[in-house]
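Journal club side-thread
Mid-discussion, someone asked how the predicted structure for our own chain would compare to the paper's figures. Pasting it here so we can look after the session.
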Amino acid sequence: MGSFIKQSFRQLVTRKYSSFIQIIGLGIGLGCVILMLTYILHEYSFDKYHANSPRIYRVVYDQDCSTPCPLGEAFKAEIPGIKGYFRIHDVGNAQIKKNNEFIKEENFLLADSSVFSILDIPIVAGHKNTFFTNPESIVISDKVANKYFEGQNPVGKTLEVNIAGTLKLCTVTGVYRHFPSNSSLHPDFIGNIELAMLSLGSATMYFSNTEKKEDNLSGSWEQRGMQTFILTSGKTSIADIEAKGTAIFQSRQKNKDQGKVHLQPFNEMYFNSVELWNIGSLLTSNISSIKLFEGIAILILVIACFNYILLSTAETQSQMKEIACRKVIGATRTQIAAKIYMHAITLSMISLLPAILFVNITIPWFNRLFDKNIDFSLFSQPVYLLSMLGVTILSSLIGGSYIVLYIRRLTPVNLLKPALNKTKSMHSGGIVAFQFVAFILLVCATAIMMKQIRFSQTMNQGFSSKNMLIFKLDNMELRNNVAVLKSKLLSNSHVQGVATSAFTPPGQSIVNLNIGMHGTEPIKEEGMFLGAGLIELLNIPFVDGQSFADGEDGSHNLIINEMAAKKYKVKAGDLLGTFKVRGILKNFHVHSLHTAIQPLLIIRNVETNCFELAVKTDGNNAEVAAFAKQVWNEVMPTALFNYQLLDDRISTFYNKERKQAQTVFFFSSLAIFLAIIGLMGYVAIITLKRTKEIGVRRVNGATVAEILAMLNKDFIKWVAIAFIIATPIAWYAMHQWLQNFAYKTELSWWVFALAGVLALAVALLTVSWQSWRAATRNPVESLRYE
């Protein structure tokens, strides 16, 4: 074994050029796989580190994660097998006062004290049994403890907190170690759930002037706004709990909603929340994205392994006599295979060095792209370390096995014969073709993903979103002063219009409305609550009827879109359920292009119940935003100033696809690089072996162009074969990917042609450079070469 290792190092030193290419190529390939494997293992580990994780479930009613306040207590009291529960509520608009200035904190959570018993949250200071002794108690993470208390012990000290416009002086009763990067929950502050009544009372949406009392919200089964998690004994059937939970929920509902309770496993929330509503700030992902990255990682590793095989088979010709001699003097197939495997393992282990360097360099970019916090210390954990070593050894076995199988077929007589070029060429050509199949697939995927994203962002949405600023009205005092805000904003010469809305389309904050019956058919459609003037501000055209009248409270009239008018066969002036149709709008997108346009019901909302303020500008967006901040400070200095461009909101709908495209582009670039260095090494070896042949042809009158054509024709053939194989695969794969969109771009022929031309250009440039060097060499020197 020791002699095999020495021979491997001697072989690496002897063949410096090809060894360097093999090490760098395999190192980058291993680095890609290690990086992706780390990410994949990290994703699959979400929320599984809690000891109780297999017995914790989130309560979901139909597709809604938002549940009534008393649900948890009722379930625990009336359903056997439930050992405990905790509720959480995302504040979302909290501000913490520091040095007479309020700082926005996005990760502010309210929860029951039982969250510290059910979940594994390491306590740094304080005792969990006394965390929430009063409603103003607050527990903070070690990450923010130093931010507000600068190295002091924060327990017993106070923080002034602004929740939905109400100031609370909260006492810090404990400090916990911040949640790890593989946790769906990631709060920096955990306050008493009793404070949720402030936020829930502020966020209550309705379209009449009926006042809702915050005191009644904690016992109301009609008002939702909390996520409820239960801890089971592990012995009771989940189906039984769901059935009993459904009965309890339906019996408490005044409207006798016929929805069903579903229990979602806590450790499955991360991958299975895409179709759910009101998931709050919990981190989520999509299993299809993980599958995409798994496929890319395997593809890159295979390309790297094939690079090793390509160069190894090219070098095998020069080792044939050595292998034949070993067989003649008695070396067994096992001994020869052991030598080849040892060389492959040695090469792979050395390749770990550039692989680790590659990972270390790309981790910051990777974290920014996927909004992760993965650091290099993660590799010290056994599961990641073993995975890294496993991938390395597996790649060496794959590469070594091909060479072993290739040589084992040959007898000593055949090994001594030099005429093995045709068989080797077929094997090597197949590998070259595979590399370019992968290259063409990745280029096509990148181009079509970017084409769809551009299509999504430039397609006519059915309304005008340009130069539209959306300001959040996060608390009741702001909403009560909305008339003052509008008046002051309209005084700015750059402001062309102002309108209020419960929600400004497009987005996900669409409610389901049930407005009665149309004949024998119930009317249950998507609905929106729009404020005065928003339809006109967005420039959504009417096809029939008119907009709401000034001062109208919306309790008797509604506006619908063309899709709803067609479905229910109504026109302006007709009754639809208990409402009169005032107008019919041309169809427009209230969601991203992932979703097809559906029937839509629009009800007028009173201004004091609107949560957004839309401002149309003349293009001087920054100046208007700065002016609006001054207005906010005048009207309510403690209010959270929060705004975004409507175009930016639309752009965020496609962040997932944008990240996928960026990832595929990155790995496409690596695939190009690996293909180039693999071809460079392979062509260098081939031209070196044909040096004498090239010299003879030159002496007999062959031109440089003829020599280049001779050396390039095989590669052109393999690229053409790769294009024929890759094009239908790429077309099918991207056709499937585009099914995620209701409105999609075309699979243009030029995308596939461009990928083929790029592949051919890469092959010709890489091969021609080496071929030209060989073809322009002095024929006399070529004839002397042996």
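Post-session note: The first helix runs from residue 2 to 14.
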